[in-house]
Amino acid sequence: MTTLIDVSLGQVAAALALVAFATAISFWRRTDLERDIVVATVRSFVQLTAIGYAIKLIFEADTIWLVVALLSVMVLFGAITARSRAKKVPGAFWPLLIGLAIAAASTLGLVVALGIFEATPRYLVPVGGMMIGNAMTASAVALNRLGDEVSESRAAIEATLALGATAREAAAPFVRRALRSGTIALIDSTKTTGLIFFPGTMVGMLLAGAEPTDAVRLQLILLYALLGSTAIAALVATGLAYRNFFTPAQQLRELS
Amino acid sequence: MRGCGIIHRVLFELRDVSLSRGNRRVLDGVSAEIHPGATAIVGPSGSGKSTLLRLLDRLADPDAGTIAYRDRPLVEYDPLALRREVSLVPQLPSLLDGTVASNLAYAAELAGKDLDAGRCLGLAGLDAEFAAREVAELSVGERQRAMLARALAQEPSVLLLDEPTSALDHDARDAVEATLAELRRELDISLIVVSHDPEQARRLAERAVRLQAGRVAACGALEEALA
């Protein structure tokens, strides 16, 4: 596959006109998001530029260990970011970290083992980044919902514990709803893909001059892998995190 | 765990039990003996009554002090087995989604008991036809009775009732009180009833623990404790 697209910094700068629109709309409609839009724009530029050079170095070095190191850092920052969305869940960091790590390792391992992608940096870095990013969003949404569910349903949970149910049994309906919340967004977008929106990879490949059928096939592989990684991450994160609401004596912890 | 025929003079024994939530001392050096039979825990709102009940079911542990059940420290019991024997019916009805029957079946299964739904509902003052009713369709009073029926499905030795009539009108309150009196006649069961109403304590219990700002103000025979 050859890259037919050549993007200059001037073209990137021209796209800032659309950011100006967003900022103007925020100012006009008083949504108070101007600062956030500017921060998001600057951060995206700095972060993507940095990761672009990092990926270039990793591709040139062509060693699997640098890939593992990069993906590990992404998992770590993913867990830290997702933790900020799950403030009502005590000790959310470790369930998130473990969930993201297992999701990334298992889905990447599987796509390599099935011969879908080669175990080279050119495939593992972008695919791993997508898996981790989507898994982070799914597990953050799931734990956010879990925290809300448990804090709003303390009486119901304690009533079930009072029957002699285990913490796992008492929390099961809420864990189930949290897991559903974490995974439903990607399932819904997968259902509508091609009808309502074109996913990013496919758009990128088409812009880069790839055959549409190749772009679609690669996109399908990634969508299916993403379904797996988000489900695994949300399952592991909720399955570990709910325990932090309970004591070893199967009591619902008092949270400050 | 029913005591294997041994008659225990004291059901629960509390020694210097204290519990704080944040900066607030909810229970402060509570010592009391609760005997088999019917005991009321009375006191004004915020005096620590419901918290005390939760401690007896090991839904929380005290910061200091000890609680014994049938002469054995509460912490030595398997908490799950304890809660199936000492069944707490909370103040706010919280049934699981589904039918009344499915709630009763769940409770009975947890306790490893065969369910006689009609009998449990009857003891709680509900017709057998309530078994098929969806929880969401029940009134607050019916839910409270369904909670009682669910607890009875576990065939507990002790029922801990937290303000069992707080959400009910006078007629429904009288009916639940009659049900509790009937329960005591029909079953070998001890009742520990939290109430803010001394008159209700007089109707339901023969002994009382009176709490005031987290401390025991009086404990013992009913009239003596309520005086």
Task: Provide the descriptors you would attach to this structure in a database record.
heterodimer; A: 256 residues; mainly alpha; 2 domains; globular; B: 227 residues; alpha/beta; Rossmann fold; six-stranded mixed sheet
Outline of this structure?
The complex is a heterodimer of chains A (256) and B (227). Chain A is built from 9 helices and no strands.
- Helices and strands of chain A, in order, run as HHHHHHHHH
Q: Calculate the terminal CA-CA distance of chain A, rounded to whole Å.
A: 56 Å
The chain-level structural class of chain B is alpha/beta
Order of helices and strands of chain B: EEEHEEHEHHHEHEHEEH
Q: Give the number of helices of chain B.
A: 8
Total beta strands of chain A:
0
- List how many beta strands of chain B DSSP finds: 10
Residues in helix, % of chain A: over 70%
Report how far the terminal alpha carbons of chain B are from each other.
Answer: 35 Å
Largest sheet of chain A at a glance?
Answer: none
Q: Compute the CA-based radius of gyration of chain B.
A: 17 Å
Report the largest inter-chain contact.
A-B, 20 and 32 residues
Query: How large is the share of residues in beta strands of chain A?
Result: under 5%
Kindly give the count of domains of chain A: 2
Characterize the largest beta sheet of chain B: strand count, sense, and whether it forms a barrel.
6 strands, mixed
